[in-house]
């Protein structure tokens, strides 16, 4: 695919990250604060292979990575990890369906507009407290 020019590479530099609990079978979900202080939301079953499992070390999130997407349909073909591994700061509750609208129908690979990493993290922590 690369030789055919069918891949688009998206490099990212990450400062910190937090993870959301899995919701049904949607896969892993992360909010990642990027170097420019914007926030990237990444989710999907493809992230399972980067999770620590059965004595396999964590490979994501990390301080630098590149997402390679198919040029025509936008699907993620692979994720190339580099830099240092980041342990997620917290494991927060998943986003409920009614919360998705708050973030503009959040989608995998979306840069969240109008909310800082700290605001998003505080909202998720408040959700944790409200669930008790």
Name some characteristics of this structure.
mainly beta; 132 residues; globular; 7 strands
Structure description:
- The structure is a single chain.
- Helices cover 14% and strands 39% of the residues.
- The chain is built from 2 helices and 7 strands.
- It has helices spanning 97-100, 117-131, and strands at 7-20, 28-34, 39-44, 62-70, 76-85, 91-92, 110-112.
- Strands 1, 2, 3, 4, 5, 6 and 7 form a 7-stranded mixed beta sheet that branches.
**How many separate structural domains?**
1
Q: Helix/strand/pairing class, anyone?
A: mainly beta
- Average pLDDT figure: 86
What is the helix/strand order? Answer: EEEEEEHEH
In whole angstroms, the N-to-C terminal distance is 48 Å
In short:
With 132 residues, this protein is mainly beta. 14% of the residues lie in helices and 39% in strands. Strands 1, 2, 3, 4, 5, 6 and 7 form a seven-stranded mixed β-sheet that branches.
Helix and strand arrangement:
Blueprint: E1 7-20, E2 28-34, E3 39-44, E4 62-70, E5 76-85, E6 91-92, H1 97-100, E7 110-112, H2 117-131
Parallel strand pairs: 1-6
Antiparallel strand pairs: 1-2, 1-4, 2-3, 3-7, 4-5
């Amino acid at each position: 695919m690369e030789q055919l020019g069918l891949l688009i590479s998206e490099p990212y530099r990450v400062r910190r990250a937090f993870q959301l609990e899995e919701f049904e079978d949607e896969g892993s979900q992360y909010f990642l604060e990027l170097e420019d202080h914007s926030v990237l939301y990444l989710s999907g079953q493809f992230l399972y292979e980067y999770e620590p499992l059965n004595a396999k070390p964590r490979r994501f999130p990390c301080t630098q990575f590149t997402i390679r997407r198919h040029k025509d349909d936008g699907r993620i073909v692979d994720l190339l990890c580099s830099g240092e591994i980041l342990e997620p700061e917290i494991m927060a509750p998943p986003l409920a369906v009614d919360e998705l609208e708050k973030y503009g129908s959040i989608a995998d690979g979306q840069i969240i507009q109008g909310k800082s990493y700290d605001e998003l993290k505080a909202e998720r922590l408040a959700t944790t407290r409200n669930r008790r």
